[in-house]
């Protein structure tokens, strides 16, 4: 017998013995999922998972400040039913699914948090784990893994519904309002060459056609991993898409500053005069560089909350909270607002749960929860589990400054 | 018009591919290391450039000059010293893995430095977030022109193209027309011989790395305005560029450059015209990967190299072989027992038990590396894709209603099938070419296969629930640990049996001597397929379990780049044993945990994982083998010292009479544990010929190698003109006047006759002298030396010595394989050199002509000079007894 055989048999036998022992004790191994993990007499522990760093440079890290600012306010006001929020900070998933899953496990199993707030990670890998463990998680619902889960709560609902479910129309409607009606106007939707991006083409097409636009075409041809050095093949196609002419509106569903600023610069060079809109350009860092600011000038960004530039009291309060938590140099980007409103929704459900906080009670309270707020519009569960909350705004970048073009407004969804 | 526009702007993209590919080809051909981290070097330079311009506010051109011309060469030099120098001698696996480690570590290092500078030192530098767009060398604001209708060119594009062309021309001129270029090319052609001709091969490698680093930096600075500071984008850019390098056969810089330009144009044309491609998600993204794969198969680069190389990847000795079996198994058995005891003190949803289980899942996947790399000696960069493929296939099957065990089987079989498909190119390719091919396949899987909605269920992926094992479900971390230990144990058993089976031995034979294996009829085909299929099956099972324990699998869960980190970790622990895989898996999950107590930075862990590559450059067999070797060395040191001491002693009285130009004193030398020379004393006076005779295996060539400096003696000294040169490297000895014509042909086959001569005779007048003496060489001065006849090559090898006579000339079997007429000519040259005062040591196996020339004759047998004396004293009896090994010391 070789030494390996010997070794294998040794621990095989040991394993067998112990497995028998396990059978005895497995029966009394109770799951803590339904218990009151992370809840004490005077505190509730929460923590989040964000994409703070990533190879592409994309970062949702600002949401940590937003959540902290909102929790600070709640604690200053005496907490929720006498319990302070113990915010343990966030795990960075590096935009890697396995790191996200590890981060979620760490928060739940080691740090024993009650819920995950905020979660904002485009490739979050912990969704199924949290669903199995029945741990509530709150944040910016972008990917389809948010949708249809008992444990997942997007402050903005679910942006990636299944065919037959409800999808948003606010973006199309807001753009239509901006250019004085959609009748006879054409729209082009640009995505990158990946499944996720192509999916965006479908929902966005629906949003704009529901608002009355005609679809001039769409493309998901851009190589997904790196922006092209040369934009001319893509730009030429767009410039001829509306019956040989350029379309009236260009919607970009591409994430990544380099993709968007590269495309816009090339479009402008080619003489594009239409309206350009995307979901990511509402970012003070994006316009710090003069070249990028030039490319993004005149672009309409579409945040899912009332912009910082607005004078709505809820926004003024949020700005004050953010500055208080982050100091005068706090960066007010869209992720800070997302973190803030995610935490807000969590606190409201917690309030509704009452004094006896368990996860079961929390889920019960969330069912039938309906909440409106001028800061981000509205959210209701369980409707928000499978459909968008239907609200959004438009911000225009003009001369290096963001200007509110359309205030936050909610529109009825349409069937995808 | 549109077409013209696509071609023109495609050339600009191509220029960046071309620059990167040229650097890749340069460093590969100069040092034999294929640098996967070339793109990472570009990223690091782009980052520095960004911080210098946007952060420190330097104007673009000075910042560019600092980055490309100052920092990049320094970085190249530092990497050469730390890593590449050691890698040149390491096996192919270690080379690939080490540079992949660097690919991971370098960008993280740069980002970490920025973090530390801003965080700890409070410098006001911009962070690398999405919006922070970096500029390039071109002017700001960007100007655009429309030279023709539908054609747009901007100032960034023109700057990029102009600089790339200037760099390419400069590189070509440098390689072809400067002494530096000649030295680099000589090192490429024959590293050892270059040393013997006075070329410092180490310095030439360092220069090649510095130059290649400059090219990477230039490409990085030029690419950054379009790519942004995205380290993955740079790695992807490198893979695209590797396609161009492959089309240049990793040798020709001009062809590589042209291929890079062409690649840019092709990519643009596909984007502009291939409308059909839009239906297949990912097709356009995958164009370079498809071309890379096609190029590797079509050009078949592997074949030429495989013939000439023997055992590039020598398995290390089993340092534990002298320990009893129980002693070898003890640490592992104890560790497993301790782990099990610990496991049952934990709760079912315990965080730490969950981590250990996660580590063991990875360990199972890592076992596949043990099969394909450890046993098979092949590097497969697609292992993460196999795991993902299996998990997705199992998820699909389960989602379609198949029972769980069947779904697992479907997943494993899918991975096995993929493994066989990968094995098909492996049959023809080897080493780094195979690694590149598997890389291309991994990228294709990521970019095309996993993008098919029906297969990966869009971005949602598939759910895989915990399954029951009778005593509980896999939701219980403790049960997962036990289950995985059993599976890994069985896998270890399987691997052990495989190694001892007929296929295992066949693989080993093919691996260490492909030609010999073929000669005795060992087929590598079946063995390689078996290995790949088995490895993929293991990776597939690991992948399915990974997904199941995670609850879900999506197409982005296990990207190809994850496989890189895995490979780096497992090879660092030791890829030849299952123990290395287990250790690797546990380290992979537990190390970040331990690190988390020290630092918050997400970069430090990445840097450390990547830096494993540097360790690997020093110890190519991994940490486990390193420990084993250390213990072995300690056990053996005393024996070895005793042996050397015993051998060196009796050789105390050299027959000294007058000053010798070359003198070996009591030299003991050998290779590894085998001692070849057992106390050699030899002296060669100026103006005389010493013939060193002896049977095959007597140690003659080793004696030459010790004299030349290629082999360091364990004891004894080498004196050149009275000075002790024992510690000097070959090129220093050559510069001191030692000229060694090694066995075979001492010429650089890929260099022209003129270039061969230039290495020893830098002055043109000296080379003209040679041509006057040997008009035949003059006629063929522009011909590659490899195209000369054997006799001409031998003359060429010795010709430089005629014009610039060295102090000592050593010729190892100069008459081997030559026609008698040529031999006479060669020996005539020796006679002339002797008359001009050169000390000649002529080594021959057969006495023949050399006896007529020699002044002194020395016989070698079994690593000793058994007799030395005047030629006159040599008669037939002495010859006979010398060859038969009868001439003992007492006779001398």
TrEMBL record, chain A:
UniProt signal peptide: 1-26
The UniProt keyword set, sorted, is:
Signal
Q: Which InterPro entries match?
A: Leu-bd (IPR028081), Peripla_BP_I (IPR028082)
Domain of life here?
Answer: Bacteria
Q: Which residues form the Leucine-binding protein domain?
A: 44-400
Q: Which Pfam families match?
A: Peripla_BP_6
Name the family the entry cites: Belongs to the leucine-binding protein family.
The entry's protein name is: ABC transporter substrate-binding protein
The organism's taxonomy opens as: Bacteria, Bacillati, Actinomycetota, Actinomycetes, Streptosporangiales
TrEMBL record, chain B:
**One of the record's GO molecular function terms:** ATP binding
Q: Which family does this protein fall into?
A: Belongs to the ABC transporter superfamily.
Q: Which residues cross the membrane?
A: 6-26, 33-50, 62-84, 96-114, 158-175, 208-227, 233-250, 257-276, 282-301, 329-345, 351-372, 379-398, 404-426, 433-452, 477-495, 529-549, 555-572, 579-598
Protein name per the record = ATP-binding cassette domain-containing protein
Q: Which species does this protein come from?
A: Actinomadura parmotrematis
The UniProt record lists the ABC transporter domain at 662-887
- Cell compartments where the protein resides: Cell membrane
Q: Which Pfam family, giving just one, matches this sequence? A: ABC_tran
- Keyword field: Amino-acid transport, ATP-binding, Cell membrane, Membrane, Nucleotide-binding, Transmembrane, Transmembrane helix, Transport
Which InterPro entries does the annotation name? AAA+_ATPase, ABC_transp_permease, ABC_transporter-like_ATP-bd, BCAA_Transport_ATP-bd_LivF, LivM-like, P-loop_NTPase
Q: How does it sit in the membrane?
A: Multi-pass membrane protein
């Amino acid at each position: 017998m070789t030494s390996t055989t010997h070794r294998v048999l040794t621990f095989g036998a040991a394993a067998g013995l112990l497995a028998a022992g396990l059978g005895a004790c497995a029966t009394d191994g109770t799951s803590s999922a339904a218990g009151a993990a992370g809840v004490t007499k005077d505190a509730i522990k929460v923590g989040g998972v964000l994409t703070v760093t990533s190879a592409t440079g994309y970062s949702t890290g600002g949401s940590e400040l937003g959540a902290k600012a909102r929790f600070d306010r709640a604690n200053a006001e005496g907490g929720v039913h006498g319990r302070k929020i113990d915010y343990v900070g966030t795990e960075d998933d590096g935009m890697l699914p396995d790191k996200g899953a590890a981060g979620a496990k760490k928060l739940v199993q080691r740090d024993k948090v009650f819920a995950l707030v905020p979660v904002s990670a485009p490739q979050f890998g912990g969704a199924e784990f949290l669903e199995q463990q029945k741990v509530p998680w709150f944040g910016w619902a972008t990917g389809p893994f948010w949708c249809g889960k008992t444990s997942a709560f997007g402050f903005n609902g679910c942006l990636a519904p299944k065919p037959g479910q409800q999808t948003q129309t606010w973006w199309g409607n807001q753009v239509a309002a901006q250019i004085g009606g959609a009748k006879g106007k054409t729209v082009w939707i640009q995505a990158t060459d990946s499944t996720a991006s192509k999916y965006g083409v479908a929902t966005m097409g629906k949003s704009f056609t529901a608002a009355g636009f005609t679809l001039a075409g769409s493309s998901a041809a851009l190589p997904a991993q790196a922006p092209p050095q040369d934009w001319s093949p893509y730009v030429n196609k767009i410039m001829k898409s509306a019956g040989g002419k350029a379309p009236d509106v260009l919607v970009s569903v591409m994430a990544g500053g380099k993709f968007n600023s590269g495309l816009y610069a090339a479009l402008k060079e080619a003489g594009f005069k239409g309206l350009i809109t995307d979901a990511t350009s509402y970012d003070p860092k994006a316009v710090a560089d003069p070249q990028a600011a030039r490319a993004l000038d005149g672009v309409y960004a579409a945040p899912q909350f009332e912009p910082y530039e607005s004078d709505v009291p809820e926004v003024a309060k949020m700005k004050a909270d953010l500055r208080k938590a982050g100091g005068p140099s706090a960066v007010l980007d869209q992720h800070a607002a997302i973190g803030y409103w995610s935490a807000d929704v969590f606190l409201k459900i917690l309030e509704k749960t009452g004094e006896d906080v368990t996860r079961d009670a929390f889920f019960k309270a969330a069912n039938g929860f309906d909440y409106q707020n001028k800061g981000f519009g509205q959210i209701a569960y369980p409707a928000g589990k499978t459909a968008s909350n239907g609200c959004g705004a438009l911000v225009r970048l003009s001369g290096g400054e963001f200007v509110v073009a359309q205030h936050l407004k909610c529109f009825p969804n349409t069937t995808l | 018009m549109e077409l013209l526009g696509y071609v023109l702007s495609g050339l600009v993209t191509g220029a960046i591919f071309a620059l990167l590919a040229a650097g890749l080809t340069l460093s590969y051909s100069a040092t034999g290391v294929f640098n996967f981290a070339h793109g990472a070097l570009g990223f690091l330079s782009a980052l520095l450039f960004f911080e210098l311009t946007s952060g420190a506010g330097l104007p673009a051109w000075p910042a560019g000059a600092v980055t490309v011309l100052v920092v990049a060469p320094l970085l190249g030099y530092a990497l050469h010293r730390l890593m590449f120098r050691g890698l040149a001698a390491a096996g192919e696996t270690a080379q690939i893995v080490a540079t992949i480690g660097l690919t991971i570590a370098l960008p993280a290092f740069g980002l970490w430095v920025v973090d530390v500078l801003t965080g700890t030192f409070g410098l006001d530098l911009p962070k690398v977030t999405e919006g922070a767009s970096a500029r390039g060398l071109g002017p700001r604001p960007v100007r655009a022109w429309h030279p023709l209708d539908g054609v747009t060119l901007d100032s960034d594009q023109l700057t990029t193209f102009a600089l790339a062309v200037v760099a390419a021309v400069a590189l070509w001129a440098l390689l072809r027309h400067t002494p530096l270029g000649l030295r680099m090319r000589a090192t490429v052609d024959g590293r050892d011989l270059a040393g013997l001709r006075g070329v410092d091969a180490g310095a030439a490698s360092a220069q090649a790395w510095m130059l290649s680093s400059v090219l990477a930096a230039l490409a990085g600075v030029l690419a950054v305005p379009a790519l942004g500071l995205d380290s993955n984008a740079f790695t992807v850019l490198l893979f695209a560029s590797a396609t161009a390098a492959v089309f240049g056969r990793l040798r020709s810089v001009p062809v590589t450059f042209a291929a890079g330009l062409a690649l840019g144009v092709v990519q643009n044309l596909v984007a502009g015209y291939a409308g059909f491609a839009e239906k297949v998600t990912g097709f356009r993204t995958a164009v370079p990967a498809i071309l890379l794969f096609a190029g590797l198969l079509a050009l078949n680069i592997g074949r030429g190299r495989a013939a000439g190389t023997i055992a590039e990847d020598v398995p290390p000795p089993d340092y534990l072989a002298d320990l009893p079996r129980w002693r070898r198994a003890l640490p592992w058995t104890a560790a497993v027992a301790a782990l099990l005891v610990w496991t049952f003190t934990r709760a079912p949803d315990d965080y730490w038990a969950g981590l250990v289980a996660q580590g063991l899942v990875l360990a199972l996947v890592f076992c596949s590396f043990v099969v394909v790399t450890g046993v098979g000696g092949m590097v497969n960069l697609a292992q993460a894709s196999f795991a993902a493929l299996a998990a997705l296939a199992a998820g699909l099957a389960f989602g379609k209603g198949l029972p769980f065990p069947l779904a697992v089987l479907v997943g494993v079989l899918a991975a096995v099938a993929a493994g066989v498909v990968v094995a098909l190119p492996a049959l023809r390719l080897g080493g780094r070419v195979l690694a590149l091919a598997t890389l291309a396949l991994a990228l294709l899987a990521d970019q095309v296969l996993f993008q098919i909605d029906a297969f990966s269920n869009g971005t949602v992926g598939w759910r895989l629930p915990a399954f029951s094992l009778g005593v509980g479900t896999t939701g219980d971390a403790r049960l997962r640990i036990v289950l995985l230990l059993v599976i890994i144990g069985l896998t270890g058993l399987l691997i052990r049996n495989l190694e001892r089976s007929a296929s295992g031995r066949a693989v080993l034979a093919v691996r260490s001597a492909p030609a010999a294996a073929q000669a005795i009829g060992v087929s590598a085909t079946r063995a390689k397929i078996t290995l790949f299929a088995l490895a993929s099956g293991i990776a597939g099972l690991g992948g399915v379990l990974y997904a199941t324990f995670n609850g879900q699998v999506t197409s982005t869960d296990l990207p190809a780049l994850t496989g890189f980190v895995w490979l780096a970790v497992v090879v660092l622990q030791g890829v030849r044993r299952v123990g290395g895989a287990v250790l690797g898996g546990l380290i992979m999950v537990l190390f970040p945990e331990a690190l988390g107590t020290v630092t918050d930075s997400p970069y430090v862990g990445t840097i450390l994982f990547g830096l494993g590559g540097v360790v690997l450059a020093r110890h190519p067999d991994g940490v486990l083998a390193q420990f084993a070797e250390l213990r072995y060395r300690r056990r053996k040191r005393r024996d070895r010292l005793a042996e050397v001491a015993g051998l060196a002693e009796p050789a105390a009285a050299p027959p000294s009479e007058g000053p010798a130009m070359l003198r070996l004193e009591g030299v003991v030398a050998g290779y590894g544990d085998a001692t070849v020379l057992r106390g050699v004393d030899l002296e060669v006076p100026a103006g005389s010929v010493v013939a060193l005779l002896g049977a095959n295996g007597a140690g003659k060539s080793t004696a030459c190698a010790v004299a030349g400096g290629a082999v360091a003696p364990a004891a004894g000294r080498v004196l050149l003109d009275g000075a002790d040169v024992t510690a000097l490297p070959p090129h220093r000895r050559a510069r001191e006047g030692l000229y060694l014509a090694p066995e075979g042909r001492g010429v650089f086959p890929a260099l022209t006759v003129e270039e061969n001569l230039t290495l020893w005779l830098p002055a043109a007048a000296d080379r003209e002298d040679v041509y006057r003496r040997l008009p035949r060489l003059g006629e063929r001065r522009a011909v590659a030396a490899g195209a000369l006849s054997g006799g001409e090559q031998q003359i060429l090898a010795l010709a430089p010595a005629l014009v610039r006579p060295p102090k000592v000339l050593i010729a190892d079997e100069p008459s081997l394989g030559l026609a008698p007429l040529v031999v006479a000519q060669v020996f005539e040259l020796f006679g002339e050199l002797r008359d001009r005062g050169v000390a000649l040591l002529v080594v021959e196996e057969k006495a023949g002509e050399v006896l007529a020339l020699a002044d002194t004759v020395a016989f070698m047998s079994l690593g000793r000079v058994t007799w030395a004396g005047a030629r006159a004293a040599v008669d037939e009896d002495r010859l006979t007894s010398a060859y038969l090994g009868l001439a003992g010391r007492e006779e001398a």
